Amino acid sequence: MTAMIIKSRKQLPLLVSDKDTILPVLPIKSTVLLPGEKHVVQLALKENLEMLREVMDGDNQLIVSYSPRPAGENGGIDLSEVSLLAQVESARPGSSGSRMVTLNAVRRVALTEIRQITPYLTAAYLETTQGEEEGKQIRWDIDSLLELVSRLTALNHDYPPEMIGGLQDLAASPGEFADRTASLLHIQPYDKQEMLEAVELADRLETLRRILTEEVEKTALSLQIDKRVGESLERKKRETFLRQQLMEIRRELGEEFVEEDLSRLFHNKIRANRALPQEVADRLLFEADRLKHISSSSAEYGAIKNYLELALSLPWSTPPVPASDLPAVDKKISAEYYGSTQIREQVLEYLAVWQSSRELQDLPVLCLAGPVGTGKASLVKAIADAMGRRFVRINGTSLTTMEDIKGGHRTEVGAGPGYLIRAIIEAATFDLVVFIEDLEYVIESGDTNALLALFEAVDPRHNRRFVDNYVGIPFDFSRILFVLGISYMDDFPEPFMHHLEMVEMPGYIEREKVVITKRHILPKLYKRYGLSRSELKFSDRALTRIIRQYTMEAGLIGLQQQLEKIYRKATRRKASGEECKIALTESNVDQFLGTQQFIPEKATSKPEIGVATGLAWTGAGGDLMLIEGLKMRGTGQVIFTGSLGEIMKESIQAAHSFVRARAETLGIDHNDFAGFDIHIHFPMGAIPKDGPSAGMTVSLVIASVMAERPIRNDVAITGEVTLRGKVLPVGGIKEKVSAAYRAGIFTIILPKENEK
To answer: Within 13 Å and on the Cβ side, how many CA atoms surround 404?
Structure first.
C-alpha cells in the first residue's frame, strides 16, 4: 500500500521548526472536521485500532486528514496537506470489535512527509499561523455573513432559528466564527476541506461567503420549483372538478354529448367488425372509452379519433388471395417482360417456394440488382399482374429514417404510420406485391436503424408480427410479397447479403433494346400521345441509330426520353392542323433530335504496331477499348495513362512482367527491356477505367511494341493474365460481344473458361 499527500493550491503560512513533530494519521473520507468541532467516528480496521491503542497510551493526540481516495482503492491512500490536530476524548466498545471514538478538533496543521505506512500511518507536520485582523472591514464581513445565515435559516427549516444566536456570540472571534458556521452547514466534504485550507482569516471569510451564498440560492430555487409544481397540480385538480361539474350540468339540461356519441359510434363499429383479432378489438375499445372523458376541444381528442379511424380503415376482413398457377404466371411474365430466360426461371423458382412454403422460416427476400432502366419495376409489375395482386411501388428516398418505415410514436407531434401501413390502407388489402426500389438511398443515408427496420418488415423470418409504432398493433406481413431493388449488388452491406435472394439484371444489348422498344415502349407512347402508327413510323435502323448515337446507358430510360422528344414534335404538328405523316429513318433522325451526342469507339482501319482492340464492360453496357503502346529510349520504366484504377495498373505491371519473362519465345531482345521505356495509354482519358479484363490485351500491346510487329485490327480481345501466363475468365461477355459486333468486328478472343 502507498500513501501520498495532496498539496493545497493555496499559499500556507507555516511555523518553521528545526525539530520534526510526528503523529499518527487517521484518514477519513465521509466528513471533514473543523477546529472546535467534536465528532464521533467508528474504527474497525486493524491498523486503525492498533493506532488507537498507541494514542491512548500516549498523549491522546492524532491527526485527522480528509482522504478522497480511501485505503484499498487502487492500493493507495491520498491525504490532504491541510489537516487537523485532534484530541481523543473517549473510546468505547462498538459492534463487531470496533471502537467508537470521540474526537475534539483542536487546530490546523500541514502535513510535510509520510514517515510510516505500516502498521499504521504516521506523518511529520508543521503548525499553521493565523494573523488575527481587526478593524471595520472584519466587522462588516461578520455582519454580512450573519445576514446570510439569517436568510438561510428563514428559507431552510432544517436549520434551527437558535443557530443565529449562537453564532452572534462568536462574532468577537472572526476565525472561530467562520469555522463554527461552516461546521453547522449541510455542505459537501470538499467544501469543508476548502474552508479548512483557508488558513488566512480574510480568505476564510470570503470562502464562507461563497458557500453561504450558494446554499441560499439553491434553497430559494428549490422552494420556487416546489411552489410551481404545487400550483400546477392544484390547477389540474380544479380543472378536473370544474369539467365534471360542467358535464353534470349539461346532462341535467338534456344537452347532447359529442364525446359520448362518438365513443358509442366507435364501440358499435368495433363490435360489428368480426374480422378484427381479439387483441386488436380490445385495444380499440380501450381507446374508444377514453373519448368519453376527454373534451372535444383538446388535441388528444383529435389524436385518438384519427387513430381509431385509421385502425378501422385497415383491411382486416379481406380474405387471402389463393395461390397462383405457376404456368399461367410464367406465360403472363413472358408476355409483359422481355429479358433473360435465366432471370425468369430464377424468379419463378422463388415464387414457387414462397407460395408453397409460407412456414419456411429462412426464406430470403427477393432482390433485383441492376442499373436504372433495366426493367426491375416492369418485372415486378408483371409478377403482380400474373398473381392477381395489387402492385405498390415505394421509392427508397422515402425510407431514409426508421420512422418512415415503422411510423412515429403517437406521443410525438405530427406522428403518423409508416409508408408500409399507408400503402396497405391505400390498396385496401394485405395481398400486395410491394416493390421497394433505389435502396442505395437508404444505405447512403447512414442510418443503420432504418435498414434494420426495413428488414424487420420485409424478411419472412420476422414480419409475421410487425408492429408499427403509431398503430401499436402487430400485423402479419407474410401475406405481402416484398421485392427489393438496387442498382449494384456491391452497394449492399455485407451483413445483410445472406438475407437476400439476389437476381442480377444486366444491361440490355442493342438488339434487345430494339425488340423491347417495338414491343413495349412504342405502343405505350402511341397511347400516351394520341398518335397512330400511320402518323409516326420508326424503322429498325432509325431505332438503332438513336440507341448508338443519342444514348449511352445500360437501361432504357434515356432511349424513352429521346423517343418522347420525337412524339412531342409529332403531337405539336398534329395539334397545329398540319398533316402528320412522319417516317423516322436512319438518315433523318438528326432532324428531330439534333446532332448526335455520342460517338461510338471504332476499330482501326489497318493493322498497327502497339495498337490493340480490347473489350470493356461499363455501366452503359459493352464498349470497345483501344489500347496504345509506344517504346522509347529510357531506363526500362513502364508509364501508363488514361484515368486508370488500381486494378488496371496492377494488370499492366503483371502483363509487363509476363512478356519480359517470355522475351526469347516472342523473339524480343531481353536487353531492350532495360534500354527502352514503355508507355501504355488508354484513350478517352477523362473517363475513369478499372477492372481485371485488360491484362491479355495489354500483354499483346507490350509484345507488339517490343517485337515491332503489328496487331490485327479485325480482332477484339478480353481476358486477365497471371504471371504464369494463365488466362482467367472475365464477366460481361454478352455486353462485350455485342460491342464488338456493333463495331463490325466478328473475331473475338475470349478466355477458355468463358466458352460456356
So the answer is: 17
Round to whole Å and give the CA distance between 40 and 126: 25
How far apart CA 623 and CA 604 sit, in angstroms, is 15
Q: Crossing angle of helices 341-356/326-336, nearest 10°?
A: 150
Please write the tens of the pLDDT for every residue from 684-718.
Answer: 765 677 777 788 989 999 999 898 899 998 899 99
The CA R_g of the chain, rounded to the nearest whole Å, is 45
Cβ-Cβ contacts under 8 Å for 370 (sequence gap 6 or more): 376, 487, 504, 505, 506, 507, 554, 555
Residue 563 CB: number of other CB atoms within 10 A? 23
Q: Distance between CA atoms of 443 and 461, rounded to whole angstroms?
A: 21
And the C-alpha cell for 288? 374508444
How far is residue 286's CA from residue 66's CA, in Å, rounded to a whole number? Answer: 60
3-state DSSP assignment of residue 59: coil
| Nearest to 281, CA basis, from 311, 246, 321 | 311
Q: How far apart are CA 62 and CA 103, in angstroms?
A: 9
Q: What is the value of pTM for the model shown?
A: 0.59
Pairing verdict, β 61-66 and 21-28: parallel
Cα separation, 309 vs 399, whole angstroms = 25
Buried b (16+ CB within 10 A) or exposed e, 261-293: ebbeebeeebeeeeebeeebbebbbebbeebee
Contacts of 619 (CB under 8 A, 6+ apart): 371, 507, 553, 554
The residue type found at 704 is S
Q: Write phi, then psi, for 63 (nearest 5 degrees).
A: -110, 130
Contacts with 713 (C-beta within 8 Å, 6 or more apart), sequence order = 603, 604, 605, 606, 607, 608, 611, 613
Q: Which amino acid, 581?
A: K
Distance between alpha carbon 333 and the CA centroid of its chain, in Å? 38
Question: Which pLDDT band, with edges at 50, 70 and 90, does 359 fall under?
Answer: low
Residues that are catalytic: 693, 736
Q: What is the C-alpha separation between 455 and 475, in angstroms, rounded?
A: 15
The dihedrals phi and psi of 520, each to the nearest 5 degrees, come to -120, -45
User: What SS3 class is residue 368?
Assistant: strand
Q: CA-CA distance, 470 to 404, in Å (whole number)? A: 11
Neighbouring-strand partners of residue 501 = 366
Cβ(629)–Cβ(705) below 8 Å: yes
Percentage with pLDDT > 90 across the chain: 16
Residue 81: name the closest of 197, 199, 207 by CA.
197
Q: Which amino acid is at 410?
A: R
Per the structure block, which three cell numbers stand in for 514? Answer: 430494339
Q: 3-class DSSP state for residue 290? A: helix
